[in-house]
Amino acid sequence: MAITGDGQKLDWNALYILDSRYYSNYPELDYLSQMASVDINTALSSRSSLTISDSLTSTEDSLATTDTGIQTGRTGILYNTASLALSRMVGATGGANLLLANSITDYEDAEYVNSRTDSATLSGSWGYSSATMIITSYGYSNYSFGATDTGSDDSIGNHFLSLGFEKELSSSSSLSLSGGANYTPDIDERWDWTSDASWEKSFRHSSLSLRYNRGIRSGSGYTAEIEVRERAYMSWSFAPSSSLSATVSGGYTQSTSIPSSRLDATSYNASVGCVWRPYSWLNVNVDYSRFQQWAEGTESYPLSRDRFFVGFTASLGEWRF
After folding, report:
1. Which of 28, 63, 73, 181 is the most exposed place for a label (fewest CB within 10 A)?
2. What is the count of structural domains for the chain?
3. Cβ-defined contacts of 176-183 (< 8 Å, 24+)
4. For position 320, what pLDDT does the model report?
5. Is 4 contained in some domain?
6. CA pair distance 236, 250, nearest whole angstrom
7. Is the separation of the CB atoms in 95 and 89 below 8 Å?
8. How far is it, in rounded angstroms, from Cα 86 to Cα 41?
């Protein structure tokens, strides 16, 4: 369910999703999840804007909730993230952005480690040409583990700096590249490198997307440590008609906790699905996915999951007040 509001200087939207999953062969994996979010955007002037966002998710599936790419055991997970973003245009082709964010992951099972992340990021962009944008950013993140309130047990600070560019190669393709460094003084003044690369291409009836990312992230619930996470992802979408579309995607994730390397997890996922829209108010979804995980330092080694899913989505239409 989505609700939106448009004003002269203030726009907002709210979203609520209720999702119930039942497994015919493994009923112990059944779960119910809920997600609610709100976004408020206001124009401070003709060249600046402010956006406030908050999102709350309650579920038992870590893959559907967190951004770790690691499957934990079934347990209640409460995930909340709030952010404030201030943007301002600088000159004719430049911009500056300040992002303040806070996220909390709270596990019901005491076996897992709760975490909290507070971060501040300042980024700038400059139009080098009509097709090329130079982007740089500096940020600081504080990762707390244990209790998710101010009385957290462990805390790790991390500085990061990156420089990159976005370029339109043609009217149908674009390229984005960036690289940088992480400095973690709380872990023996550790230095590490980060990278992000993506390429997108549109065809007449399809589109292709490739991406690689390496960076420092919060833990996945198994240790009170941050993780070096590498990801590679591919997605191909095909739409032969306005009522039928198909998507093939795959991803690879490697996570290693630092400094102990007690958690060393590798996972991949692949999926194929299609969406058929027989009526303007009805969508029929059919997809198959495969997930495989090898993880030292977890209770599951290895873990695999095959899922076949059929869904029906009915739209009640748009109401205006």
Report:
1. 28
2. 1
3. 178/135, 182/158, 182/215, 182/216, 183/158, 183/159
4. 61
5. no
6. 9
7. yes
8. 10
228: in domain: yes
**Does residue 256 fall inside a structural domain?**
yes
Cα of 80 vs its chain's centroid, Å: 13
Q: Which residues contact 250 (CB under 8 A, 6 or more apart)?
A: 233, 234, 268, 269, 270, 271
Mean per-residue pLDDT of the chain: 86
Q: Please say whether the beta carbons of 281 and 314 come within 8 A.
A: yes
Mean per-residue pLDDT, 224-237: 91
Question: What is the rounded CA–CA span in Å between residue 292 and residue 253?
Answer: 10
Q: What pLDDT shows up at residue 121? A: 96
Q: Which two tokens stand for residue 187?
A: 């872990």
Residue 139: which CATH number? 2.40.170.20
Residue 150 has pLDDT above 50, yes or no: no
Whether residue 180 contacts residue 158, with contact meaning beta carbons closer than 8 Å, is answered with: no
- Least Cα distance to 192 among 147, 151, 236, 156 occurs for 156
What's the chain's length in residues? 321
* Residue range of the domain that includes 267: 17-314
Per-residue pLDDT averaged across 179-198, rounded?
A: 92
Give, in order, the Cα–Cα distances in Å from 231 to each of 145, 162, 194, 216, 269: 24, 18, 12, 12, 11
From CA 223, how far away is CA 233, in angstroms rounded? 26
User: Please, which residues have CB within 8 angstroms of residue 319's CB and are 6 or more apart in sequence?
Assistant: none
For 146-243, where are the E strands, in sequence order? 154-170, 173-184, 190-202, 206-217, 226-241
Cα of 296 vs its chain's centroid, Å: 24
Worst-scoring range by mean pLDDT, 12-16, 27-31, 112-116? 27-31
* Block residue for tokens 């206001």: 42
- Residue 259 belongs to a domain: yes
Q: Which two tokens mark 293? A: 């995980």
